[in-house]
Amino acid sequence: MSKxxxxxxxxxxxxASYEAALQELEQLVQRMEAGQLPLADLLxxxxxxxxxxxxxxxxxxxxxxxxxxxxxxxxxxxxx
Length: 80
What we know:
The protein is an all-alpha fold. Helices cover about 60% and strands about 0% of the residues. The chain has a domain at about 20-70. The protein has helices at about 20-35, 40-70. The model is unreliable at about 1-10 (pLDDT under 50).
């Protein structure tokens, strides 16, 4: 019988901001690439990295949609 989680762990929580998610993701990647994580922790950290990446992509997509609305549906080059 498995034990049910009653409170979310820090790894399950949504990041406070895009910047916080990006920083956490960069730290995870550095630890994984440096071989600083025990084998048992690699999968958990990979899953957290995937969650953070999904969050960051969602934030960027939302920002892109807001820009499209501001530009009346047509994106303009940044250098104009």
